[in-house]
Specification:
By secondary structure, this protein is mostly helical. 88% of the residues lie in helices and 0% in strands.
C-alpha cells in the first residue's frame, strides 16, 4: 500500500463515519454513507477493479467510469438540494402569510 492509499482510505472512512453521524436519524442514509465509504475504500485498495467493472459496462477506463458516476451523483445531489430549498421557501412563505393574517386580524379587531 502506498502512502496516498493510506491517506485516501482514512479520508473515505472519515467521510463514511461523518456521514453516518450526520444522518443519525435516517437508517437508509446512514447505510448509504457506509456503503459509499466501503466502496470507495475498496476502489482505493484495488484500483484495477474499477477498470474491470468499466470494461464490463463498455467504458474504456475505470477512471472514466468513476468520472461519469461522480458527475451523475453531483447533478443528483444538486437537484435534491434545489428541491429542498424550494420546499423550505414554500413553508417559509406559508408561515409568513399566516403570521401576517394573524397580525391583520388583531389590528382590525382593535
Amino acid at each position: 500500500m502506498t502512502s496516498i492509499q493510506g491517506i485516501l482510505i482514512a479520508c473515505c472512512l472519515l467521510a463514511a463515519v461523518l456521514g453516518s453521524v450526520t444522518f443519525r436519524a435516517k437508517l437508509a442514509y446512514r447505510m448509504l454513507a457506509l456503503f459509499l465509504g466501503v466502496t470507495a475504500t475498496i476502489f482505493v485498495l484495488f484500483p484495477e477493479f474499477t477498470t474491470v467493472i468499466a470494461h464490463a459496462l463498455g467504458v474504456g477506463r475505470g477512471t472514466d467510469l468513476l468520472l461519469y458516476l461522480s458527475l451523475i451523483a453531483g447533478v443528483h445531489a444538486m437537484l435534491l438540494l434545489y428541491l429542498r430549498i424550494r420546499e423550505l421557501e414554500r413553508k417559509l412563505t406559508e408561515h409568513v402569510r399566516a403570521t401576517a393574517l394573524r397580525g391583520a386580524k388583531r389590528t382590525t379587531v382593535l
